[in-house]
Amino acid sequence: MKKEYIIPVFVSHLGCPETCVFCNQKKISGQETDVTKEDVKETIEKHLKNFDPANRKVEIAYFGGSFT
Q1: pLDDT tens across 14-55, in order?
Q2: Helix (H/G/I), strand (E/B), else coil: 62
Q3: How far apart are CA 58 and CA 7, in angstroms?
Q4: Where are the domains of the chain?
């Protein structure tokens, strides 16, 4: 059975125009700009260089936001 490898992609505050003090992801994460498709591609490529994907089950997980 292949071991799982999760590539994390952080998409903070995307989709919400508000900057509420209790969930302002840009302030919490320090990421001031929105994630672009180029950023996502670079993140995935960087992680794939760390191991042989033929030996692992690879998943991409998108994280971010605060559902309060």
Answers
A1: 667 777 777 776 677 777 777 899 999 999 999 999 877 777
A2: strand
A3: 7
A4: 3-63
